[in-house]
Design a protein that fits this description.
2 domains; 12% strand; eight-stranded mixed sheet; single chain; 13 helices
Length: 321
């Protein structure tokens, strides 16, 4: 996470957060630091009582590492904890539901939000896998409803998946994307609804294989965590999976697919998955990579990656256990 801008937004908004668990509290940190006024409500009094203390603790930690530009107490003043949902959403332009991942709960809360929220407010859910079509399809105001799924914790993982339903208006999508950018998040529009969206489908693919490897006695839990932490994960903290293989093979991702594609297909087949990397698919992915980085920049980019990894390793080794 880069140092944030200290609350200098082009248009400070009133934001309502419904649900004060780890995601709702984390988003309160993000939105308040970006300069927005946040009202947060949780049906559990105990949750409401601890919100400000937790927001302050997170901001103090971020401040210690130089990741916020304003004093923590100044940012906390932008967060208000309220005792009912109506007060939370009053005059809000953006509403983020952060209730548990339970379809019945989400349907009930979204119905209430649609009834009491200002007519111009975008209503988003932080759902991890449940689509807007499942919880908002019967609402009169469903055109303003969508999923906005954050990474966890959202003040460190700055991605936000924007997942509209077929009934979501383009205006609501545009406003959600604009709002997330104003909060210094990196919004990604998911082009169609699917269970788990993109973030959790990628995470799930790794988890499914990790579970199988433990089940089959191939490696231990600690060994797999170490391999990802000090290998794949270290690399992925700098570049994503496509750029990883693009930079691992001189000649780029197309050559990598020709050499190792059959092996990856065989690995998938062992798990009952038949998804070969067809020539058309490889060509499309290679075309997108070359638009991002022409091959004549390959050596420079490899050196850039290596230096980033050196920086991360040095930072790790300088930190006390």
């Amino acid at each position: 996470m880069a140092i944030l801008n200290g609350g200098e937004t082009t248009h400070a908004r009133k934001v309502a957060i419904i649900g004060a668990g780890s995601i709702g509290t984390g988003l309160a940190v993000v939105y308040s630091h970006a300069g927005h006024t946040v009202s947060i409500f949780d049906a559990a009094p105990a949750q409401r009582q601890r919100v400000l203390q937790e927001v302050r603790r997170i901001l103090y930690d971020l401040q210690e590492f130089g990741l916020v530009a304003l004093p923590a107490d100044e940012i906390v003043r932008k967060v208000q904890v309220v005792d009912n949902l109506n007060d939370a959403v009053s005059s809000a332009e953006f509403i983020h539901e952060c209730a548990p991942e339970d379809l019945g709960i989400k349907r009930r809360i979204m119905k209430e939000l649609d009834e009491v929220a200002p007519a111009n407010a975008v209503i988003a859910s932080a759902s991890s896998a449940i689509t807007a079509s499942e919880f908002a399809d019967r609402l009169p105001g469903r055109a303003r409803c969508l999923v906005a799924h954050p990474g966890n914790p959202p003040y460190l993982l700055r991605v936000m998946e924007i997942v509209p339903a077929a009934f979501t208006s383009e205006d609501a999508v545009r406003r959600a994307l604009s709002f997330m950018a104003s909060a210094e998040l990196a919004p990604i529009r998911v082009r169609r609804e699917l269970n788990g969206f993109v973030f959790n489908r990628l995470q799930g693919a790794v988890l499914r294989e990790a579970y199988c490897l433990v089940r089959d006695g191939v490696a231990s839990v600690e060994e797999i965590d170490r391999l990802v932490r000090d290998g794949l994960g270290l690399r992925w903290s700098v570049i994503g999976p496509f750029e990883t293989v693009d930079l691992n093979t001189r000649g780029g991702i197309g050559r990598h697919a020709r050499i190792l594609g059959p092996s990856y297909h065989a690995m998938g087949a062992e798990r009952g998955q038949d998804d070969p990397w067809t020539q058309g698919l490889v060509s499309e992915i290679e075309s997108q990579r070359r638009a991002i980085m022409p091959l004549d920049q390959w050596d420079d980019r490899v050196r850039w990656r290596n230096r980033k990894l050196m920086s991360l390793i040095a930072a790790r080794e300088s930190e006390p256990d």
